Amino acid sequence: MAVSIAPKETADLSAMEDEAFRAHVRQWIEANYPSELRNPPKRLHWDENKPWYFKLAEKGWLCPGWPRQFGGLGLAPAKQIIFTEEVERHGCARTNDHGIVMVGPLLINHGTDAQQQEFLPKILNGEHVWCQGYSEPNAGSDLAALRTEAVLDGDDYVVNGQKIWTTLASDANWCFLLVRTDKNAKKQEGISFLLVDMATPGITVKPIINLEYHDEFCEVFFDNVRVPAKNLVGTPNRGWDMAKALLSFERIYLGSPRLSAYAFARLRQLAERMGVWEEATFQDTYGRLRLDLEDLKSLYGTFVDKLRRGETLGADVSMLKVFQTELFQRITDTMLEIAGENAGLLEPMEGNRNLNPTGQYIQARPATIYGGSNEIQRNILSKNVLGLPG
Amino acid sequence: MSQALDDRSESIRMIRDSAGAVAPRDGDTKRVRALRFVEPGFSRDVFAEMGALGWIGLAAPEAAGGSGLGMSEAVALTEELGAGLAPEPLIPAMLSARLLAAAEDKALLGGLLDGSKVVLTAWQEKADSIAVPGTGDAPRMFIPQAGGADAFLLPVREGNRIALVALEAAGSDLVLEKTMDGGFVGTLRADLSRGSRIADDVGAVVEQAIDEAALATAGHMLGLMEKAFELTLGYLKTRQQFGRIIGTFQSLQHRAADLKIHVSLTRAAVESAAAVLDDGATGAVRQAAVSKAKHRAVESGMYVLRQCIQLHGGIGYTDEYDVGLYLRRGMVIMNQYGAAALHRRRFMALAPEDVE
């Protein structure tokens, strides 16, 4: 391997016993994570979450799953799972992590030595903050219909088109972009992967205000943007399979019970505050939600066990995304039902962020849409798992 | 650790394979249909075969003549038998074997374990309850397949203890009622003076045994839903309307995806609960695990079974077509050893919340 980046963490975490490793990670997170940012009600911007990103980077813990020669921790799946569990248990905010979970693995598997040398260190030191240019106005669920075009002109591709729902694009200085490089091929076979500097002339980013009154998502416009051809990853017109492989990360991540579990704990606090906790009708609803959550944890556990054994997850992981996100919504629906007129308040009740039924309710709405809508997940299940015909 | 896990999955695989002897993998329901409404509602020969295969004593200690396996194997077995719709009272027999092993009653236990004697436990005094008051003169209700019993076991309260009385079935006052699936349940009005007292105190054991039966019943429900769903998928892939295979219709595809999720949730709940019991959990942790699994199996099981009827349309409502057999059996077992609401209440009362 031509590329080698010195790992920051010198202790051999792989040699630790699992429970000692868990305690080590937990202690460090508790000592270093900013307490005011635990379980934030909204996705944080880079200026809010970068102190935590840099803490992780400085410790050498930014990329637990990357191999050590690329500057990661090279942890086996079982330890990566423990690491993730501890991050989730503490309620650490998701960082601008597209570089870590998407670009890094993409380049480690498909990048040239030069690409690895140029980009990986800058993810590790936080110099590059990445965003994901996938969806377009007319290519959402049907992502392969994307039309943003890249035409080779000398040593550059010239990119024209528009992306949308680009998460935190306004924070990013680099973008990994799906573009159409062959208009005549079958739609999945004319797509390529480009790495684009967001400072390139011709790129315009426009934030979209969502139902949370938040600007998490953006539109990104490309007007004759020149991208060096050396920034194409893998083989031209073969980007689709790489893109799909990266999406499988999202389906297990979005199937994690953490959002439902957090909302469920808040539901109890709200019920007590509203004086309905003891009511039999509420208790029955609460019991059903509780058991749905517990059984989701059991099902999630079966997938985590597969990862721990080093197996690759199949299309059936879509089940988790469907059930988790719909449970999250049912929990937050119940919050509104018991909140009285507080259901219409913009801010948390009584200035207490634990009593935030509207914030939780609104946060739950897009969960069934992003990461492949639940309708698409059900299509995947019916075709790829159950074998139902086209 | 991983060697132990490998051994475990190997013993579970062997149990599943051996179940094929009684519950044919191809879904042939001829045997099951022939037994419907013919007393006692099951085959004594098949029950004896279950004994010979070591199933009745599956979880009983080897020292007592059992197989010394655990709940992970038991739920795998009852799942297979559910998928095969076996009407034999294996779960009630396992419950009785547990009590007889605790009572160290070699004579009755031997006959039960080898399948030559059907011994059923008459513990239930009212509907929708898993409590064992042990009231001496109370009629004992809802004894599954009671018409085939050679002997009954009765928990009987004596002060603070629950003694166990064994009673010959012949000559007992037993009234049978037909069940929806072609079987029978019995109400026993026992004359205890005819019985023999075989243990002083089985109060704790009978509670544990009922929990194990509840979990095994959740496994049976899992088998019912798996098989009914398999039939339904087959139907969706072949039935044509409007010139198309109906499985191409997206509303039906999405329904099928939802049913798959419910089957998977149930499997995760049942198998994780079995692992909790096999790890030696006691008290509230053990009971909560059982309640979680039985609740899920009933809620998701009955949802899947009734949707399987719906997805078949009219043919699903005929007695001739097999899918209805699974719904009928589901109706019989759903509330045995505790309904969903009972287990939901028990889980909520027992399980500490993991509040952050």
From TrEMBL, chain A:
Alphabetical list of Pfam families matching this protein: Acyl-CoA_dh_1, Acyl-CoA_dh_M, Acyl-CoA_dh_N
Protein family (similarity comment): Belongs to the acyl-CoA dehydrogenase family.
InterPro entries (UniProt xref): Acyl-CoA_Oxase/DH_mid-dom (IPR006091), Acyl-CoA_Oxase/DH_mid-dom_sf (IPR046373), AcylCo_DH-like_C (IPR036250), AcylCo_DH/oxidase_C (IPR009075), AcylCoA_DH/ox_N (IPR013786), AcylCoA_DH/ox_N_sf (IPR037069), AcylCoA_DH/oxidase_NM_dom_sf (IPR009100), Mycobact_Acyl-CoA_DH (IPR052161)
Domain Acyl-CoA dehydrogenase/oxidase N-terminal stretches: 17-127
Gene3D superfamilies in the record: Acyl-CoA dehydrogenase/oxidase, N-terminal domain (1.10.540.10), Butyryl-CoA Dehydrogenase, subunit A, domain 2 (2.40.110.10), Butyryl-CoA Dehydrogenase, subunit A, domain 3 (1.20.140.10)
Name this protein carries in UniProt: Acyl-CoA dehydrogenase
Required cofactor names: FAD
Record's keyword terms, sorted: FAD, Flavoprotein, Oxidoreductase
PANTHER family, A to Z: ACYL-COA DEHYDROGENASE, ACYL-COA DEHYDROGENASE FADE29
Top-level division of the source organism's lineage: Bacteria
Hydrolase among keywords: no
SUPFAM superfamilies: Acyl-CoA dehydrogenase C-terminal domain-like, Acyl-CoA dehydrogenase NM domain-like
Acyl-CoA oxidase/dehydrogenase middle domain segment(s): 131-225
Domain Acyl-CoA dehydrogenase/oxidase C-terminal: 237-385
Transmembrane segments: none
Automatic annotation (TrEMBL), chain B:
Domain of life from the UniProt record: Bacteria
Limits of the Acyl-CoA dehydrogenase/oxidase C-terminal domain: 205-344
Keyword ATP-binding: no
Domain spans labelled Acyl-CoA dehydrogenase/oxidase N-terminal: 10-89
Keyword tags: FAD, Flavoprotein, Oxidoreductase
Cofactor: FAD
PANTHER family: ACYL-COA DEHYDROGENASE (PTHR43884), ACYL-COA DEHYDROGENASE FADE28 (PTHR43884:SF20)
Family, as annotated: Belongs to the acyl-CoA dehydrogenase family.
UniProt name for this protein: Acyl-CoA dehydrogenase
Species for this entry: Neoroseomonas terrae
